[in-house]
Structures are given as structure tokens and as C-alpha cells.
């Protein structure tokens, strides 16, 4: 792992970063999304702004749009033009967002996950599988997964029915499905990173297959899974673990706290509390 570029992207902490369609999208507590072209040799393109009165907590791009989560709503924005396409009203602050072709999902502080029709903005369902704030949400086809402050990972179908619940020993701050959808990586505060093998036919047969519990003090924020590798961001470091070989690579980031990470095709983007985005290969 080596540092190849540092992008001065924001005036506030970077809260979410994504690589999408040959671009880097970074969201911040300053309420904007910075867009850079060419992840290998990033060049500033433009900025998305004006869609929230406070900072952004989460973004999720799809096609030529990006879903922004902040305040008590989520907004769907056209990346190239900064045009507002739709908004989705929530009851509490939105902590995490995810979109599919026809649906939008939001996780919020009131303990709910909400599903909306993507184009019309109509709320379709409310999932209530948590006793406190929901911190992260992920979806794939007809499966929705949420992680919460209560230490639960809850699996739902699109009808709002709870299919299975994992009860863990700390708040679930982030979770990611692998590309095949049969593996789930979960970050549990105070515990570490847990890797589960999913049985998509019988979710109750889901099994814990690996635990990374030695990185908790240094890697406190966000995870990303890309093929067989897991990327961690945390206090002054970015690390990458190979699930097959067990090898670990680590890069020290001086004078910054990494809050979010993403990876694609050998490129890692790490967003810092300083407002910078660190590009690593």
C-alpha cells in the first residue's frame, strides 16, 4: 500500500466516500459532495450543494444519481448537474442510506428503517427491528439488512417482515455485503470486525466464520469489502486484510483520523476528519 494523492476536498470532516463510474464522490459535514474524475489520477470536477441545511451523514450512488442522507430527509441528486430529482421525508436524522433501481432505504435515529419508491418519493414501508438508533443499512434485491446501537443486525424482506436477527455484544456501526451477497462483514464497536457466511435460503443458518478483534483500538470507524479483501479506516491508519491469505497491509496517515473508506480495482479512498481524501494504491 502506498499513498498516491491527497485531495483537499472539504471544510469539514469527510463522512462518506465512494468510487463510482470512474469518479470519486466525497460527502462532508460541510453539507457538500465533492466530485473528482479518474480515481487513479484524481482531478477536481465540481461540487454538489444546496440540498441540506446541515452536514451529510451518508451517500450512495447509482447510475447517474447519488442519494444523500442528512437531517430528517434523504435527497436524490443528479451527479452531473446538481439537480434535485426527489426527496424522502424521515421522522428523525438519517444516519445511513442505500438505493436500488426502484427503492430507497433510510436508517434513522428513531430506530426505524424506511423504504420509499425511488422515483415518486412515496413511503412504502417502515421496518422496526431495533430498540434504539439504526446506524447502517444495506440492501440487495429483496433483502434489507440493518445494524443498530442496540447491537442487533436485522434481516428483512421488502414486505417489512423480519427474517432473522443477530444479537451482538456492541453497537453495530457499519456492515457490508460481499459481491455475491452470501457474505456479511459487520463492525461492532468495542468488539471488532465479524465475518458471517449467509445462507440466503435459510438465514437462521447464518454462521460466524471469522473475527478480527485485534484492530479495535486503532480502527474505529468504517469498513469496506471488495472481493476477498476488507479495508478498515480508523485513527491515523488504513489497513487491508486478505480473507484468503490472512495477510495484512497497513498505511499510517499522519495527523488525521480516517472516518470512511471505499475501494475499487486496487484503489482505496479514505476520508479524514481533516476534510481531506487520501488516495492509496
From TrEMBL:
<keyword id="KW-0677">Repeat</keyword>
<keyword id="KW-0963">Cytoplasm</keyword>
<dbReference type="GO" id="GO:0005737">
    <property type="term" value="C:cytoplasm"/>
</dbReference>
<protein>
    <submittedName>
        <fullName>WD40 repeat protein</fullName>
    </submittedName>
</protein>
<dbReference type="Pfam" id="PF00400">
    <property type="entry name" value="WD40"/>
</dbReference>
<dbReference type="GO" id="GO:0010992">
    <property type="term" value="P:ubiquitin recycling"/>
</dbReference>
<dbReference type="InterPro" id="IPR001680">
    <property type="entry name" value="WD40_rpt"/>
</dbReference>
<keyword id="KW-0853">WD repeat</keyword>
<dbReference type="GO" id="GO:0043161">
    <property type="term" value="P:proteasome-mediated ubiquitin-dependent protein catabolic process"/>
</dbReference>
<dbReference type="GO" id="GO:0005634">
    <property type="term" value="C:nucleus"/>
</dbReference>
<dbReference type="GO" id="GO:0043130">
    <property type="term" value="F:ubiquitin binding"/>
</dbReference>
<dbReference type="InterPro" id="IPR036322">
    <property type="entry name" value="WD40_repeat_dom_sf"/>
</dbReference>
<dbReference type="InterPro" id="IPR015943">
    <property type="entry name" value="WD40/YVTN_repeat-like_dom_sf"/>
</dbReference>
Amino acid at each position: 500500500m502506498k499513498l498516491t494523492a491527497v485531495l483537499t476536498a472539504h471544510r469539514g470532516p469527510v463522512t462518506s466516500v465512494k468510487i463510482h463510474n470512474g469518479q470519486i464522490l466525497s460527502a462532508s459535514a460541510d453539507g457538500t459532495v465533492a466530485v473528482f474524475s479518474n480515481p487513479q489520477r484524481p482531478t477536481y470536477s465540481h461540487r454538489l450543494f444546496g440540498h441540506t441545511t446541515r452536514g451529510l451523514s451518508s451517500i450512495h450512488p447509482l447510475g447517474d444519481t447519488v442519494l444523500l442522507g442528512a437531517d430528517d430527509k434523504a435527497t436524490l441528486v443528479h451527479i452531473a448537474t446538481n439537480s434535485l430529482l426527489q426527496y424522502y421525508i424521515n421522522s428523525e436524522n438519517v444516519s445511513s442510506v442505500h438505493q436500488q433501481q426502484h427503492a430507497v432505504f433510510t436508517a434513522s435515529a428513531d430506530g426505524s428503517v424506511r423504504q420509499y419508491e425511488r422515483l415518486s418519493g412515496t413511503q412504502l414501508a417502515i421496518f422496526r427491528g431495533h430498540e434504539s438508533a439504526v446506524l447502517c443499512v444495506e440492501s440487495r434485491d429483496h433483502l434489507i439488512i440493518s445494524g443498530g446501537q442496540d447491537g442487533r443486525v436485522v434481516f428483512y424482506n421488502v414486505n417489512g417482515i423480519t427474517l432473522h436477527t443477530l444479537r451482538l455484544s456492541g453497537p453495530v456501526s457499519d456492515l457490508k455485503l460481499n459481491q455475491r451477497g452470501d457474505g456479511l462483514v459487520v463492525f461492532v464497536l468495542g468488539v471488532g470486525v465479524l465475518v458471517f457466511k449467509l445462507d440466503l435460503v435459510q438465514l437462521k443458518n447464518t454462521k460466524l466464520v471469522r473475527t478480527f478483534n485485534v484492530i479495535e483500538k486503532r480502527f474505529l470507524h468504517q469498513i469496506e469489502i471488495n472481493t476477498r479483501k476488507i479495508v478498515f479506516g480508523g485513527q491515523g491508519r488504513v489497513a487491508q486484510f486478505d480473507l484468503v491469505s490472512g495477510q495484512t497491509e497497513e498505511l499510517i496517515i499522519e495527523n488525521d483520523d480516517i472516518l470512511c473508506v471505499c475501494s475499487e480495482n486496487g484503489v482505496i479512498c479514505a476520508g479524514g476528519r481533516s476534510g481531506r481524501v487520501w488516495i492509496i494504491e
